[in-house]
Amino acid sequence: MRGVIFRDNEVIFHKNLNELDLFAIKISEIVRKFFRYVIVGGYVSILFGRSRSTEDIDIYINAEDVSIEKIKAFYDELDKNNFWCFNAMDHLEGYNLLNEGLGLRVAIKDTVIPNAEIKLPKSHLDLISLREYITVKLNEFEIRIGSLELNIAYKLYLGSQKDFEDALYLFCIFKEKLNYSKILSFCKELKVKKEVVERVLRC
Fold first, then answer.
1. What span, in angstroms and rounded, lies between the C-alpha atoms of 40 and 129?
2. N or C: which end of the chain has fewer CB within 10 A?
């Protein structure tokens, strides 16, 4: 992908925004008013130009930022911006859902696709994604994504053809900037065999 500048923990690039990009930007603008967050999963490869479809965007928010008051304010902001949480219609239900380890499904009102699944981290690897975030400056907008090394490793762990292709796509774009040892370390923790890493991550 041409025109991508990657320095420190920041990526800068321009692209023609698709519908999913616009959705991700808008929901990020709302979420970051209340919570520290990162976007992870399949949308990350789509963000950087991979041509494939997805129905949802995965977002982790920091558990320390979550309270009944914050969730109520978040719901109010969703409503003001023509969004809804279609699997938890009021803020108390939403607060309880998060604390049960489930995600809030947020979409534009009266639709369910595309949607963002907003959830709390469940493992220390999820916390690493939150802590080692990357700021993406996309045209005139900003969004946060999780560690690219961890995203690649997790895609290899999931193991479907689509996930392998996501991992390879990100690896080939950012190969010169990635810490390969970190990818191997994350893969080891996720019990992904080194031969799988070496077979898939070949540009």
1. 8
2. C
